[in-house]
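The record is given unchanged here:
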Amino acid sequence: MAGELARGLELSRKAEAALGDASGPLAACVATVRTNFAMLTGEAGASARLDRRPDPLEALASTDSLMWHRVVWAIQAPTWADRPDEALALAESMIGLGRARSAPSLLPFPFAARAEARVSTGDWDGAYASATAALELAIETGETSTAAFARCTLARVDAALGREEECRELIAAVIESIAHHEA
């Protein structure tokens, strides 16, 4: 996976350079992806990129669902930078937009990312509710990777609350889904 992260960082740098001073939905999308790869690889100054990036919601002016799925990652970077309030506000906005578009397929990841942000604040009930909603929607819409993410978040909540058996069951389901997905 480290090689894939390094490659993603390299490609996001190239995309950012190619765009130059451009603005608009594509620039917001590229900035979001670039910031996330910077955060994931521990690039110096990565968290400061959060303050300089365009508003990720600008990219959602486009009705292109691929754009949505790239920009929705923007919710995670503030969580990783210990800025959960920013992540929660962004998640709420994206959930609202997905609902306004009557598009259930746009909702699983924002719910899962909201759950992750709530875990970072110790809001176990809120995290569990968001992760459960994410899991149900991911299963309904066939998003296996988001379903695994939601199960992992539910397992983290169960572990934090001392529910070992439930945690182990969720992790076993994640491992099974990954093995099944790779086959």
Summary: The CA atoms of residues 21 and 27 lie 9 Å apart. The chain has a mean pLDDT of 85. DSSP finds ten helices and no strands in the chain. Residues 164-182 form the longest helix (19 residues).
